[in-house]
Amino acid sequence: MADDEIILSELDDEELVAQMFDDLYDGLKEEIEEATHILLDRGWTPYDVLTKALVGGMKVVGDDFRDGILFVPEVLLAANAMKAGMTILKPLLAETGAPRVGKMVIGTVKGDIHDIGKNLVSMMMEGAGFEVVDLGINNAVEKYLDALETEKPDILGMSALLTTTMPYMKVVIDTLKEKGIREDYIVLVGGAPLNEEFGRAIGADAYCRDAAVAVETAKAQVARRHNVGAGAR
Ligand code: B1M
Q1: What is the C-alpha to C-alpha distance for residues 121 and 202, in angstroms, rounded to an integer?
Q2: If you average pLDDT over every residue of the chain, what do you get?
Q3: Percent of the chain with pLDDT over 90
Q4: pLDDT at position 233
Q5: Cα–ligand 1 centroid distance for 81 (angstroms)
Q6: What CATH number was assigned to the domain covering residues 8-98?
Q7: Rg (CA), the chain
Q8: What residue stretches are annotated with the B12-binding domain (predicted)?
């Protein structure tokens, strides 16, 4: 063993999270897996590991990608390392025993292959008691329509990370309107380049800044629908 090799389990929490930021940056999947297990063994909640260590580390990657310091291959490695950590956390986040509150179909829109944020939203929604049908990436309007018909969800979720793909959300919503089924679903949208104004402008029910907001918004919107439904009876 080299003298300078870092033993993750010997680092305190703060050092370990800092090391995870570095390891994520360097796309070191196995180190991220090991550190995720260590934090869980130390009593960290899955949610804290996710938000403080993994999402926090990805923010650094995102900033350096934006600034031209990192390029696509490096970012792909970082994304894979992040996904490895998320795979460990997923069953734990889904295991809260929360009662089933509703169903959501979610997918990243056509032309867009970013899926980390969408996966995170799916995980948190499952943890909050929603059944989630994940359509993956690069979804054309037909894919969404088919899934809505077969799955009959309460919520349609769409994710877009590119300014060039976010307008496609409006294509989907306009198609729902044309078919007279827009009001059958709660439409929630999210992704880094969006904002509330955009959400309103394209006719979504709400823009969700992050996964936690997505869960809260989904719960509130589903509860409101049920109340309105009960009132109408
Ligand atoms: Co891309 N990429 N990327 N990328 N990438 C961005 C988005 C970018 C902002 C980087 C930059 O320049 N600063 C930039 C977009 C610029 C723009 O549009 N103005 C960009 C670019 C340009 C590109 C390419 C075009 C690069 C190229 O090829 N030259 C290319 C496009 C490919 C395509 O889609 N057609 C590309 C490729 C890639 C990789 C493949 C390398 C990789 C994706 C890997 C993967 O996802 N499997 C990648 C990554 C990782 C990023 C950054 C660095 C990180 C995105 C991420 O995962 N964030 C990103 C920089 C950034 O966003 N700052 C960038 C972490 C994640 C947890 O956050 O996705 O925002 P986020 O999700 C949040 C919220 O937004 C919200 O909740 C989530 C959790 O809190 N949310 C929702 C998201 N979706 C939701 C849906 C909901 C609700 C909430 O529904 C209900």
Answers
A1: 21
A2: 92
A3: 76
A4: 46
A5: 15
A6: 1.10.1240.10
A7: 19
A8: 101-232
Can you tell me which atom of ligand 1 is nearest the CA of 194? 75
Element (H, E) at 206: strand 206-208
What's the CA-to-centroid distance between 66 and ligand 1, angstroms? Answer: 10
DSSP assignment string, 147-158: HHHHH--SEEEE
- Among 54, 65, 156, residue to substitute to test ligand 1 (most atoms within 8 Å of Cβ): 65
**Measuring CA to CA, how many Å separate 201 from each of 64, 111, 145, 154?**
31, 21, 21, 22
Ligand 1 binding pocket, CB closer than 6 Å:
55, 58, 61-62, 65-66, 72, 75-76, 79, 106, 111-118, 120-121, 157, 159, 161-163, 188-193, 208, 210-211, 214
Per-residue model confidence (pLDDT) at position 153: 98
CA atoms within 13 A on the CB side of 70: 21
The whole-number pLDDT of residue 116 equals: 93
State the sign of the Cα–Cα–Cα–Cα dihedral 92, 28, 210, 201: negative
Per-domain boundaries in the chain: 8-98, 100-233
Kindly report the protein residue whose alpha carbon is nearest to atom 6 of ligand 1. Answer: 161
CATH class for the domain made up of 100-233: alpha beta
In the block, residue with structure tokens 């989907």 = 172
Expressed in angstroms and rounded, the spacing between residue 226 Cα and the centre of ligand 1 is 34
- Full-model pTM: 0.90
